[in-house]
Amino acid sequence: MNFEDDPTGQIAPKPPVENLNPEQRSPFSRGLQRETKRAAVLSCAAKLFNTKGARSTTLADVASRLGLTKTSLYYYVATKEDLIYQCYNANVRQAHQQVDAAEQLTDTPLDCLMYFLESQIATTLRALDDAGDFYAAPLEVASLAAEHREALEEEYRRLLRRLIELMQQGIDQGHIRPCNPVVTLRAILGALDWSFYWLYEMPREEAATVSGALRDLFSHGLLASPAQTQTNNLPGPEALTADDDIFDRDTQNRLKQEAFLRAGTRCFNQKGFSGTSLDEIAQQLQVSKGAFYYHFANKEALLTQCFDYTLDRLEQVMARVAALEASPVTKLEVACRHIFSLQNSEQGPLVHFNAITSLPPAVRQRLLARVGAVHGVLERFITDAIQQQLFRPVPAGIVIQLLTGALNAAMDLATWQSIDSLEQGASDYFSVFFQGLRVTEQV
Length: 443
Known about the structure:
Blueprint: H1 22-25, H2 30-52, H3 59-66, H4 70-73, H5 80-105, H6 109-128, H7 146-173, H8 181-193, H9 195-201, H10 204-207, H11 210-220, H12 249-275, H13 278-285, H14 289-295, H15 299-322, H16 328-343, H17 361-387, H18 396-409, H19 413-416, H20 422-435
């Protein structure tokens, strides 16, 4: 698409093309031409944000991809902050539009929820096929100016309220089995948090089957028989935790480093790489900035070690769970519940996988190989359960991507609803994966 150089100036966000009146939709309309170009700017920026990170992407990067000068770009966005805000705002706006469409085209709350989820997948696939716009995953909202952050957070809360109300209506009408609607919805949306990344990498033939697999999983769950339920009296997280010798000098140094890693992880998860301040991390721990540099060369080294620390713990969990004398269903549940506990206890959280876009390609490739190995262990639990007819025949590779997205998103659950019991919280959170949403009589 060719762009004309336009006068620079600050512009307010414009309505989507579908909201323009008939005169504005005319091919001779300057408003339509400008809106089409602006949408292309946001789509290009969104794709870069999803692969490089919002703060790591420059206006020059976006202008270069579009064949624009940086001066020309200022006709569509006022600043880098404005560009990030507009991209994130476009994301939540299109989500509201998808809920609107789902409510008009479906008859039950369950079908409405499924239509919305499938629409989210379809939007990404259309963009990958050059048939639609890219939308930026809102990963760095916390780093925005207060006015923009608060506006986005309110719109997102409004979206969540709509979806939670749908879930509750489905329960009340008997279309959705009794469950905790807030926790269940967080697990479902969390399953899609990482989808913008793995859908980009997935072979197109397999990606085309994701919507059907998602509907099947969240409708019916993994368990092969309605008579099956999630396991109670599972081995607890304490059985998987080693004791430390707190009087050992090396242990003391390691514990100090781990304190930095946990504080860094919390900041990276909340504010993204560029929005994270080393001063803030040091202040949280009530230490000097020099204490930070004793353990880490720079902020990139800290994020890299946060990933390695997270993966060390995940690999330890996988090894110990794999060694249990238990069915593959129980092993999967133990692994999920232990990771949930790590995410929502003083031992956590684990670093959010989305932060990996801020690291250099070579480091990213190494870490993703470790992530893939962890996924492989979980996937074997599922394939073993399928072979033993304990799970329904599901596409294990797709299920694992959805499940690990939910595992990674479990760190945010306390912001949605207080967790009085880790055991009950984990049971509620993963029930949609094991039991689905549809009531038993309709299976």
